[in-house]
Amino acid sequence: MLEFRNVTVTLGGARILRDVDFTVKQSETIALVGANGAGKTTLLRSVMGFTQMSGEILFDGRELSEVPPPQRPGLGIGYAAEDRRLFSAFTVEENVIMPGQVAGFSAMELRHSLDRIYRILPELKEMANQPAGSVSGGQGKMAALGRALMIGARLIMLDEPFQGVAPALAKRYAEALRTLRDNDREVTLIITESNPDLLRKFADRALVIERGEVCEGSFDGGADTA
User: Fold this and answer.
1) pLDDT at 220
2) Residue 190: strand pairing partners
3) In whole angstroms, what is the distance from residue 176 CA to residue 117 CA?
């Protein structure tokens, strides 16, 4: 489904990713575990085309270098960045539907996707008409998840979704991910996290990234040496 082949990213003379080579199968939920600065965000940004890299990233067998970055969400790839990146002057709902509008969804397709999002995240329906700039950090993370769900029919990548979120909202976010997992077994999830225990209950497997290198891991955050 998603395959990394010897992917290397160098920034300012420093190698951020080092010959990354692994495969994510369709329907898997992957916990990408690593300390801050290990390369988690760079790996996700490489899928979206936001880095200069060597090697190959294949999506359904297609080399993503053939797809311009603005067109990659149209393949069914949703991405929620760590910093949310909401447009504060727009409402929560306007932020959520924006990727679908950019992708050229019809009114019916937008409505169908929005109904799906509200089933998974009913609190977003309650906040729909609020300016995005007025919501809390945790609520903003929920809105960013909804925006990723709008376009992410095949693959959803979430960068540190629990970081800086109050415990009650972190629990609710995890419940929403379980609901998504239970209701849409076809979608593939990659979730980066410094604390793997948050993903233990619903991730299929863990990958550990250390100093830009990725290996099979365990939910204690270390490499699997078994």
Assistant:
1) 65
2) 30, 157
3) 10
Residue 120 lies in a domain: yes
**What's the confidence (pLDDT) of residue 39?**
96
Kindly state the tokens that stand for 133. 């700039």
pTM of the model: 0.91
3-state secondary structure 36-64: CCCCHHHHHHHHHCCCCEEEEEEECCEEH
57, two tokens: 């990233």
Q: At what angle do helices 137-151 and 92-102 cross, to 10 degrees?
A: 20
- Give the tokens for residue 60: 């359904």
Domain of residue 28, CATH code: 3.40.50.300
Our count of domains for the chain comes to 1
The one-letter amino acid code at 25 reads K
Does 225 fall in a domain?
A: no
pLDDT tens string 88-133: 999 999 999 999 998 899 999 999 999 999 999 999 999 999 999 9
Which residues does the chain have with pLDDT short of 50? 225-226
Residue 218's CB: how many other CB atoms inside 10 A?
16
CA separation for the pair 194, 57 (Å, rounded) = 24
Check: CB of residue 156 under 8 Å from CB of residue 188. yes
Instruction: Indicate whether 224 belongs to any domain.
Output: no
Q: How far apart are CA 156 and CA 99, in angstroms?
A: 13
The pLDDT value given to residue 13: 87
